[in-house]
Write a structure and sequence with these properties.
There is one protein chain. The chain is α+β, with helices and mostly antiparallel strands and 275 residues long. Helices cover 29% and strands 35% of the residues. It has 8 helices and 15 strands.
Length: 275
């Protein structure tokens, strides 16, 4: 049975036991009235009636679990939530019910800082490989004159993964393929927005442009700048150089290099982190 009381402030005695939704907390009157213009300040300042449970604890019909964090804030004026805290919306609602405005402001700042940190922190990896392929083709030298030629093409493949989808999107906008129809931006893997696969082939000087495009080969350039030679991604070393520039511009730093950290431009695997 709950008993209704409307005591004066002088009737409260420390320590004060409060039953919040079935969970009993023991604290001091000064803690409960730390924010005098709050609901708790009015309750334990004698301005609002209070109920008592069968054991004589003051009873508040609110969530008892998150009240722990409200009480800790009143004790220390500091918001200390565990890293895996998952009831932010409930805590905000309870803080709003008790009208503890400094706590509401602290929760807003905490949530904003957490979202910014979550959106910024990321891991980025890039691996590049090369496959050589020999092509044989005929070149017409006259009406009935064809000559057999051979050349080697280098097919480069780069696999990029980033925990930040936004960073992958920006990388997609930073590169482009050269095609007969114009520049084409690469796309993240279908259904996997964290993955980007780039494949390009520099055109050998002895291979005609028409034949190069006929085989479906594409050059990779750095976009959106004009496709001048200085901006063409020629080989694995050139790709690593551009990845370093783009990653550092996004706030990443190099975390590991394979196989030789002292020869970063000739590596085949890079790992970046951002905090």
């Amino acid at each position: 049975m709950l008993n209704s009381n409307n005591p004066d402030k002088t009737e409260f005695q420390d320590p004060v036991s409060v039953n919040v939704g079935g969970q009993v907390y023991t604290t001091t009157l000064s803690t409960l009235t730390r924010c005098q213009d709050s609901m708790l300040g009015a309750m334990f300042g004698g301005q609002l009636p209070l109920l008592k449970d069968r054991k004589g604890n003051y009873f508040i019909d609110r969530d008892g679990t998150v009240f722990r964090h409200i009480l800790n804030y009143l004790r220390s004026s500091s918001l200390d939530l565990p890293q895996d805290f998952s009831e932010m919306q409930l805590l905000k609602r309870e803080a709003d019910f008790y009208q503890i405005r400094p706590l509401l402001e602290a929760l807003t700042q905490h949530e904003s800082g957490f979202l910014q940190a979550a959106g910024r922190s990321a891991v980025l990896t890039a691996d590049v490989s090369c496959q050589a392929r020999t092509l044989h083709f005929n070149l017409k030298r006259g009406p009935e004159n064809y000559e057999l030629f051979s050349c080697t093409v280098q097919i480069y493949t780069a696999n990029v993964f980033c925990t930040s989808c936004a960073a992958v999107e920006r990388l997609c906008r930073s590169f482009a393929y050269q095609t007969p129809e114009g520049a084409v931006a690469p796309q993240a893997e279908e259904g996997q927005p964290n993955y980007l696969r780039l494949q390009w082939t520099p055109r050998p000087a002895e291979m005609p442009v028409e034949l190069f495009h006929k085989h479906g080969y594409r050059r990779l350039i750095v976009a959106p700048v004009p496709s001048t030679e200085s901006k063409v991604v020629q080989d694995a070393r050139s790709f690593v150089e551009w990845m370093l520039r783009l990653a550092l511009a996004e706030g990443f730093r190099v975390d590991s290099v394979f196989p030789d950290s002292s020869d970063i431009l000739n590596c085949v695997s890079l790992r970046f982190v951002r905090y």
